[in-house]
Design goal:
The structure holds two protein chains of two kinds. Chain A is of the alpha+beta class. In chain A, the strands form seven sheets. A seven-stranded mixed beta sheet of chain A has the order 3-5-1-14-11-12-13, with helices on both faces. Chain A is built from 15 helices and 28 strands. Chain A has three domains: 119 residues, Aldehyde Oxidoreductase, domain 4 (2-Layer Sandwich); 94 residues, Aldehyde Oxidoreductase, domain 3, CATH 3.90.1170; 341 residues, Aldehyde oxidase/xanthine dehydrogenase, molybdopterin binding domain (Aldehyde Oxidoreductase, domain 4). Chain B is of the alpha+beta class. Chain B folds into three domains: 50 residues, 2-Layer Sandwich (Uridine Diphospho-n-acetylenolpyruvylglucosamine Reductase, domain 2), CATH 3.30.43.10; 113 residues, Uridine Diphospho-n-acetylenolpyruvylglucosamine Reductase, domain 3; 99 residues, 2-Layer Sandwich (Enolase-like, domain 1). A five-stranded antiparallel beta sheet of chain B has the order 4-5-8-6-7. A four-stranded antiparallel beta sheet of chain B has the order 9-10-11-12, sandwiched between helices. Chain B starts with a strand and ends in a 5-residue tail after the last helix. The chains are: A alpha+beta, B alpha+beta. Bound molecules: flavin-adenine dinucleotide. Flavin-adenine dinucleotide binds next to strand 2, helix 2, helix 6, helix 7 and strand 8 of chain B.
């Protein structure tokens, strides 16, 4: 009997719904005070003066920290973390001062009352990304270390010789992660030791970065993140909140709490850059791709280079002898973009899968068939073998389950009830299957129970539960016998909950530790009074993995209804079929797929950071004006997965499922809107503005 | 902390008297708009006077067959009232299309009428706004204006009244009852909200220091053939891009009478008098509905960002009237 594969409920589910699970901000050490950041109201310039004394005189205010007296920080490879190290302002919303007070209310009020004068130039801020922005340049590498540009064959020649060429530009706006729980930290600094409770996707790296920034030995730092209310990438590395809290705690000598407001999430938490993608496809009349090219443009800040790897996905998708990808980035007076669910793949595949849909129409070939026609036998750019690739199976299974056959070739032809235009669309999904080194420790007790420790982080995904299932199987016992300990840097080093790699990475270390413990037990080793311990580390195992191309794949199908009276779009059906290796827990996995697809719908139809070019901030910086999909926007989403065996992965056999659901979803929606209306909208989100004047009248 | 007094008024007269205190003093209904604005630093009263315990939470029949709605009747209760649903479906639907169930459960009739604009510059105290700080300028005209006004705008302000309920009440010719230190008075919905002109700081013609006590809806024989349609960026919990409140009386193939108001296109709910005039006696067809809507929107002065609203309103009016006329073809 195996624990894995059973749809076990979250182990901490009851604690969460009854409120006994405590999130970072709910920890209150004795004597704790509150810090509140003061954010720049100009997008570019220098702080001229700050009237600290007036605020220090307010009752309950303990301290005000500014660039003039903030402690020196070492560079830890992220300019966003070098808070208050100079008077320069790089973007609107950057932290220029920190107020520390006895109560949250006083800290907030004092921060609001702090008078800050700025020196700004004559010219306004440079905050609007375009595909021909003069500041665009080629970075050395792009996010996750991928190559900036790649080329195979001769794309120009392919374009010149093709029967059919698609040359189109697609854009996505700035998108903001907005997990339910905004960033928060509670910091205690006492006797040269730093104790941090943090809302984080991985506290191992937080320890290392804090050590570097503040010159504190790693052994003197503990960072805990027991329960985390989502992150979507924005908590994948420390954000300014924890640096500010540590700075304040060291200075005032008392524990310090800090939390972002929802508004702060739109400037100092990271976000997805707006992207511009030029896609060029060259094809023969019978639907063979001769060439495919993706030129991607994005923004970064002037204090840290972050280049979204938007054109990475296309390197792995379809066969074509001639290929080219480029990335260019412009450093603007904006906050630094960072990771948001499927960085690179998500905006990139929106462009790729939209352009493939346009090509299918040009060729009069069914979009599913066109993808099948161009299925590669090995990685189309490097020629590396696939560990496993079942994209075609996902496409076929999805088409069958959705009822794709018989779809009208001509768009805009299906009218219902006089008022609705109905259409369907689809797109492929892909996401890399990654594994990072981790360590774990398993202990057997005399009463037949086990303790398993690893610094994994459960950001709401169900990771804790799945790790207990993995341990139970490896130990040949039941989940009830496992005491799983995660979410603290006191445990063996674990990789971050990011890149859909958490369960693969931690699961490997847990499996290895548990197997080693089982062997010890089998060899008759006596269990000492305080338990028999086995440690494991997977650094060498990960290093020794085969050099193959590992990705998860999927196919998404959508039906939309467009209201002729308003151009409003309603999604009536949505289906995703995924091939992501072994599915370890059907309940939590389904939630990840559905969550990703939902976020993709939200990206397709709703989410949009609106840049206020005059003031240099995102004008709609709250959840009343920055719309995420509401329940009413999401139909019952159907999810299926294929039974995929892949021996080139970690021993647990999963490819990672946290991000693939969002990849391709927006393209499937936009393709369906085109099929319903005949109107191709190439700038997300697809909203009534773009449709209303171009629809037939009733 | 900013000191803020809270008083629960025990009578309308006491509430009005408290409004005369040095302030700013604000009346507190459900607080769903006012408290947000307090947190954002847009409003900074020194005294809040809670008016939700004055027995103004009843809906009464009037002698002529209309309804008198107390100022603190909650939006959800008003929408659920069988008389409202029967006689004025346009009002029930407008209410239900607004905000979220949680907000409707606490929002009051008086507070809903006086909700402020959702212009992002008005809501952000770090930016200029002529409505919030007269004379500071209007960045919306050249800035984020997609959701803002296209009719009756001024060079000072292009904000909209963003609400739904008031649009229905405007179509229904409702009358607002209020009390000031000088006594009780009324004002019709078509004059209640203002156009911005050169003083956008004033949303309404309600005299300073007034407390709304109720809203009276006169009888409307063809009220049962009325409805509310709202176009928005998501299917729930979003303000309107544009909305239409309409009631129609069709005889044979002809429009005998019609009430039409448009929401989220102007500083006040926009009573479409031009269209109404054209429609009376016109054939009940998509073409004549469209022509009437186009005539109404001919006066539009949109920005680049909100130009789509002109077409949107035209379509929404046409579709809504078709639905009411029983066509829908
Ligand atoms: C996220 C969000 C989404 C929303 N979406 C919508 C929507 O889609 N459509 C929509 O129409 N609305 C929407 N609303 C607005 C909502 O309808 C209003 O906030 C609500 O109706 C206000 O009523 P209240 O009783 O809470 O008013 P309060 O916030 O208590 O008061 C509002 C104003 O009215 C004044 N006031 C209150 N009562 C009286 C009185 N009796 N006499 C004189 N002055 C009075 C107050 O002083 C204040 O200035 C939304 C609100 C939020 C927060």
């Amino acid at each position: 009997m195996s624990a894995l594969g059973t749809p076990l409920r979250r182990l901490e589910g009851r604690d969460k719904v009854t409120g006994s699970a405590r999130y970072a901000f709910e920890h209150t050490p004795e004597g704790c005070v509150h810090a509140w950041p003061v954010q720049s109201t100009v997008a570019f310039g220098r702080v001229e003066s700050i009237d600290v004394d007036a605020v220090l005189a307010m009752p309950g205010v303990i301290d005000v920290i500014t660039a003039d007296d903030a402690e020196h920080l070492n560079d830890a490879d992220d300019g966003e973390l070098l808070v208050m190290q100079s008077r320069n302002v790089a973007y609107r919303g950057q932290v220029v001062a920190l107020v520390v007070a006895e109560s949250l209310e006083t800290a907030r009020e004092a921060a609001g009352a702090l008078r800050v004068e700025y020196l700004t130039g004559e010219v306004g801020p440079d905050v609007v990304l375009t595909g021909d922005h003069p500041k665009l340049y080629a970075p050395e590498t792009v996010n996750a270390g991928f190559a900036t540009d790649t080329a195979v064959g001769d794309i120009d020649q392919a374009l010149a010789e093709a029967d059919v060429v698609v040359d189109r530009t697609y854009t996505t706006p700035a998108l903001f992660n907005n997990p339910m729980e905004p960033h928060a930290s509670v910091v205690t600094w006492a006797d040269g030791r730093l104790d941090v409770v943090e809302s984080s996707q991985g506290t191992t790296s937080t320890v290392q970065i804090l050590a570097k920034l503040f010159d504190i030995p790693v052994d003197d730092i503990v960072v805990r993140a027991e329960h985390v209310g989502g992150g979507f990438g924005s908590k994948g590395s420390p954000r300014p909140n924890v640096v500010l809290a540590v700075m304040a705690a060291r200075r005032v000598g008392r524990p310090v709490k800090i939390a972002y407001t929802r508004q702060m999430m739109f400037s100092i938490a990271g976000y997805r850059t707006p992207t511009v993608s030029r896609m060029r496809l060259a094809a023969t009349r019978d639907g063979r791709l001769l060439g495919i090219s993706h030129d991607a443009f994005s923004q970064t800040s002037t204090i840290e280079e972050f280049t979204e790897q938007t054109a990475e996905a296309v390197r792995h998708m379809y066969a074509a002898p001639h290929r080219s990808t480029t990335h260019r980035v412009a450093a603007l007076d904006v906050p630094t973009p960072r990771w948001m669910r499927a960085p690179g793949e998500c905006p990139g595949m929106y462009a790729v899968e939209s352009s493939i849909d346009e090509l299918a129409h040009e060729l009069s070939i069914d979009p599913v068939e066109l993808r099948v026609l161009n299925e590669p036998a090995s990685d189309p750019e490097t020629g590396k073998p696939f560990s496993s690739r079942h994209l075609v199976d996902c496409l076929r299974r999805g088409a069958e389950a959705f009822g794709w056959d018989g779809r009208a070739r001509t768009p805009g032809t299906r009218r219902e009830g006089g008022r609705w235009l109905v259409g369907t669309g689809m797109a492929s999904s892909l996401y890399p299957a990654m594994t990072a080194p981790s360590s774990a420790c398993a202990t057997a007790h005399r009463d037949g129970s086990y303790r398993v420790e690893i610094n994994a982080t459960d950001i709401g995904t169900g990771a804790r539960t799945v790790l207990a299932q993995i341990a139970a199987d490896a130990l040949g016992t039941v989940v009830d016998r496992i005491d799983i300990r995660i979410g603290s840097s006191v445990h063996p080093l674990g990789a971050i909950a990011g890149g859909s790699s958490g369960t693969a990475s931690w699961g490997w270390a847990v499996t290895k530790a548990c197997r080693s413990l089982t062997e010890k037990l089998a060899s008759g080793t006596e269990i000492p009074h305080d338990g028999l311990v086995a440690d494991a580390d997977t650094t060498d195992d990960v290093e020794a993995m085969d050099d193959v191309d590992r990705h998860a794949y999927g196919a998404q199908f959508v039906e939309v209804r467009v209201d002729l009276d308003s151009g409003e779009i309603a999604i009536s059906r949505m289906l995703g079929v995924f091939a992501a290796g072994r599915i370890l827990n059907g309940r939590t996995a389904r939630s990840q797929f559905i969550g990703g697809m939902t976020m993709g719908v939200s990206m397709a139809l709703h989410e949009q950071g609106v840049m206020d070019a005059r003031h240099g901030d995102y004008a709609n910086h709250d959840l009343a004006t920055y719309h995420v999909a509401a329940s009413a926007d999401i139909p019952p989403i159907e999810v299926e997965w294929l039974d995929e065996q892949d021996s080139h992965l970690n021993p647990v056999g999963g490819k990672g499922i946290g991000e693939i659901g969002i990849v391709g979803a927006a393209a499937a929606v936009a393709n369906a809107v085109w099929h319903a209306t005949g109107v191709r909208v190439r700038d997300l989100p697809v909203q009534p503005d773009a449709l209303v004047s171009r629809l037939p009248v009733r | 902390m900013r000191p803020l007094d809270y008083r629960r008024a025990s009578s309308v007269d006491e509430a009005v008297a408290l409004m005369g205190r040095p302030g700013p003093v604000r009346l507190l209904g459900g607080g769903t708009n006012l408290v947000d604005l307090l947190k954002l630093g847009v409003e900074s009263p020194t005294l809040l006077v809670d008016v939700t315990h004055l027995g103004l939470d009843e809906i009464d029949d009037t002698a002529d067959g209309g309804l008198m709605i107390g100022a603190t009747v909650r939006n959800s209760d008003l929408a659920a009232d069988p008389r409202v649903r029967e006689r004025y479906p346009v009002l029930a639907r407008a209410l239900l299309s607004a905000a979220s169930a949680q907000i409707r459960n606490v929002a009051t009739t008086g507070g809903n009428l006086l909700q402020r604009t959702r212009c992002v510059y008005f809501m952000d105290a770090t930016k200029p706004c002529n409505k919030r700080v007269p004379g500071s300028g209007c960045p919306a005209i050249e800035g984020a204006s997609r959701e803002l006004g296209v009719l009756g705008t001024s060079t000072e302000c292009i904000a909209t009244h963003p609400g739904d309920m008031a649009v229905a009440l405007t179509a229904l010719d409702a009358v607002v009852h209020y009390v000031t230190a000088d006594g009780a008075a009324t004002i019709g919905m078509d004059r209640f909200h203002r156009l911005p002109g050169d003083d956008p700081s004033r949303d309404t013609e309600l005299p300073p220091g007034a407390m709304i006590t109720g809203v009276e809806i006169p009888p409307l024989a063809f009220g049962p053939t009325s409805t509310y349609r709202k176009a928005r960026d998501r299917r729930s919990f979003a303000f309107a891009l544009a909305s239409v409140a309409a009631a129609v009386q069709v005889e044979g193939d002809e429009v005998r009478d019609v009430r039409l108001a448009i929401g989220s296109v102007a500083h006040r709910p926009w009573r479409a008098r031009v269209a109404e005039e054209l429609l009376r006696g016109a054939p009940a067809t998509a073409d004549s509905f469209r022509a009437a809507a186009e005539a109404e929107m001919a006066a539009a002065t949109p920005t680049e960002e909100n130009r789509f609203k002109v077409d949107l309103v035209t379509r929404l009016v046409t579709g809504t009237l078709l639905e009411l006329a029983g066509g829908g073809r």
